[in-house]
Amino acid sequence: MKGRYISLLKSCKSMSQFKQIQAHIFSVGLQQDRDTLNKLMAFSMDSSLGDFNYANRIFKHIHNPSLFIYNLMIKAFVKRGSFRTAISLFHQLREHGVWPDNYTYPYVLKGIGCIGEVKEGQKVHAFVVRTGLEFDAYVGNSLMDMYAELGLVEGFTQVFEEMPERDTVSWNIMISGYVRCKRFQEAVDVYNRMRKESNEKPNEATVVSSLSACTALRNLELGKEIHDYIVNELDFTIIMGNALLDMYCKCGHVSVAQEIFDAMRVKNVNCWTSMVTGYVACGWLDQARDYFERSPSRDIVLWTAMINGYVQFNRFEEAIALFGEMQMRGVRPDNFIVVTLLTGCAQSGALEQGKWIHNYIDENRILVDAVVGTALIEMYAKCGCIDIALEIFDALKEKDTASWTAIICGLAMNGKTSKALELFEAMQVCGFKPDDVTFIAVLSACTHAGLVEEGRKLFHSMSSVYHIEPNLEHYGCFIDLLGRAGLLQEAEELVRKLPDENNDEIIVPLYGALLSACRTYSNIDMGERLATALAKVKSSDSSLHTLLASIYASADRWEDVRKVRSKMKDMGIKKVPGYSAIEVDGKWQQRLSHE
């Protein structure tokens, strides 16, 4: 009799037939028979014919589910995104004395990776070892994937190194895991190791992940090598084409990318976006716009890429116009677009446009999260509306380091030194660690307020307390602070103690700040010492030579002024004229300083 019902379930074609068969099965007392239940659950979980909710109701009435049924349910819950329920079922089966197998663990590990439960993952890894499945390829790969999802490089590396045998999937997870954790050089090293040590051939997933690493490292040489491998060994796909386009564009070889693009028979919106992004990166906005216009379809990413290009190269009116066109076409902007536009307003000082975008955010109920809030704070602060920036900061429900830093920077640039330092302290009380940008803000605040002791303490605390190595901007702020206070000797000693004192890119701007202080305090001796040092550098920065000439002029040393001017002429250095810009009726006008 049991065999007859199992045969009927195998030939069942619909849920209505299934329910009739189930009713007969239950009427003859087979509702707890293991083989029959396995077939019942297998059909009801079938993606094309079954009904998961109905299957779940059956499952709840099974007294002792088999491992087969547990595996079906765990897999189904993971695929539906109910990760915690799947993990709970795993613990339930263990409590009921059911022994997990190599079909159980992969979905459990997938669920753990998706919810980011590190301790749970380590616990299940221990169960894997206890059940003797750590060397099963399917389980081992799933362990690696879980650790990669959790961002635990040591975890997936250890599993990989302990594997007795590795298949292509193992190598792929290793490479993509490093890429996911932004360890791009290690990803490239694993790719090279795979080519040398393994008999496994790279496939589509291998080359796409490896090209991502090449793109991040700007490793054009390896990128070309992978391109050759694709041409000679693999069937070209649109996914590989996108990866190649992205790599060549971001490595500055847009012409090669264009050849690949033109040769692609099938293109998706990602291909068009890669070309737009590539031309934007080169500053060729008209070519980028041409590709944008030719794209048969445009998603939000493509719109963002083009608008961001205009903002990046100060063509703000075109960015706003394109944003308007986007709205007319019914494309709903996301947070990235409004942040891009607010950044453009901040850079240009376009307050009216910024207010209009802020109003648009409110009217369209775009979520003001930490990212959008930070962009609003920066825009209002850079446009001089620090009180509005403070209101937005105070209203933010979720703050992060960037939002704290933005308001501190804004207060500093608007002369609110006390408030900036007050919020710097409050930031740490609230559990947020200041970063290198935060310190630029507070050091700048100290500079403008003449707070030498406070600035000195903050500068030295960077490395001693916060383990942040000062960079060029930090040194520049502190040297400017010392210079303005007339502490030229201390400032000069600081420059000479720099670990990169032979790095021209660092030394030239710092000497420039010190030269400016020498002019203010008429310290000709130090100015000449700095000039001698700068002579070895052969800097083409006109401001440095102009500063030195001003120092000599203040001491009536006109012959030396003439020599500096003559040297500038010999080196082909001209004083760069400044320009100013002003927003008039929503439009921008620029003037050179001599106009």
Description:
The chain is mainly α and 595 residues long. Among the domains are: 1-50, no CATH class; 471-595, no CATH class. Helices cover 71% and strands 2% of the residues. It contains 34 helices and two strands. The chain has helices at residues 2-10, 15-27, 34-44, 52-59, 67-79, 83-95, 104-115, 118-130, 137-150, 153-162, 168-180, 184-197, 204-217, 220-233, 238-250, 254-263, 269-281, 285-294, 300-312, 316-328, 335-348, 351-363, 370-382, 386-395, 401-413, 417-429, 436-449, 452-464, 472-484, 488-496, 504-520, 524-537, 542-554, 558-570; strands at residues 579-584, 587-592. Strands 1-2 form a two-stranded antiparallel sheet. A hairpin with a 2-residue loop joins strand 1 and strand 2 (587-592). Helix 16 (254-263) runs antiparallel to helix 17, helix 24 (386-395) runs antiparallel to helix 25 and helix 30 runs antiparallel to helix 31 (504-520). Residues 575-582 and 590-595 have low confidence and may be disordered.
